[in-house]
Amino acid sequence: MSFVKTKGFKYIKNLLIGAGAAVVLMGALFKLESWEGASEMLIIGLSVEAMIFLFLGIIGPEKDYYWEKLYPGLDDYHSRIAPLTEGEVGAAPPAINGEVVEQQLGGMLNELQSMSSSLGSLKSLQEVDFSDTGKQLETMNNFYTRMNEAMANLSDSLEDTAKYKEQLSSLNQNLGSLNSVYGNVLAAMSNIGK
Residue 178 and residue 86: Cα distance in Å, rounded? Predict the structure, then answer.
C-alpha cells in the first residue's frame, strides 16, 4: 500500500482522471454537434469515466490536512521525524528539545504581547472624558426638533399653495364666463344700432 501514498501515484491518478474527463467531454461535443462516431466516443468516454470512479472508490479518499507545512518532511512517506523531541522514533522516552519548544512558544509570546498592547488601548479609551456628551446630545435634539417644525411648516405651505391654485382655476373659469357674457352684451348692442 506504500505505492498509493507516493507522489508518482498521485500524479498518475490525476493524469488518468483528467484524460478520462477529456474523453467524456470530447464525446459530448461529438454528440452535440452530431458528428460521425459520436455515439462510440460517448460510450468510450463514459466507460473510461466509470472505471475511474470505480478506481477512486477502491483506493479511498486522501487526507485533506497538511501537517507537512508545520512539520517539514511529513510529506515524505519514509521519513522518520520525531516532532518536538530529539532522537529516533521508537527509542527510549524522548527528551524535549528546548530550542524547538522555545521557537514555537515565541510566536505565542508575540501574540500575547500584541493582545496586551490592544488592551492598553482599550484602557486609554476608558479614560476618555464623556462629560460634554449630554450637551451635544441636547443640541442635536434641538436641531432635529426645529427641523421637524420646518418640515411641518413646509407641508402647511404646500397645502396653502394647492388651495391658491384651486382658487386661481376657479377665477379663470369665472373670467371666461364673464368674457362670454361681455361678448354677448357687445353683440346685442351692435344689433341695437342697426
Answer: 117
- The pTM assigned to this predicted structure is 0.33
Report the sign of the C-alpha dihedral through residues 173, 175, 176, 178, in that order: positive
- Give yes or no for a contact between 94 and 85, defined as CB atoms under 8 angstroms apart: yes
Sequential pLDDT tens for the chain (194 residues): 567 778 888 899 889 889 888 988 888 899 899 999 888 888 888 898 899 889 888 887 776 666 677 766 667 777 776 655 455 555 555 556 667 777 777 777 788 888 888 887 777 767 766 677 778 888 888 888 888 888 888 888 888 888 888 888 888 888 888 888 888 888 888 788 66
Mention every residue, 6+ apart, whose C-beta is less than 8 A from residue 77: 2, 5, 6
State how far the Cα of 94 lies from the Cα of 101, in Å rounded to an integer.
14
Q: Are 55 and 65 in contact (CB under 8 A)?
A: no
Q: How many helices (H) and strands (E) does the chain have?
A: 4, 0
Residue 148: closest CA among 156, 27, 86 = 156
What span, in angstroms and rounded, lies between the C-alpha atoms of 120 and 128?
A: 13
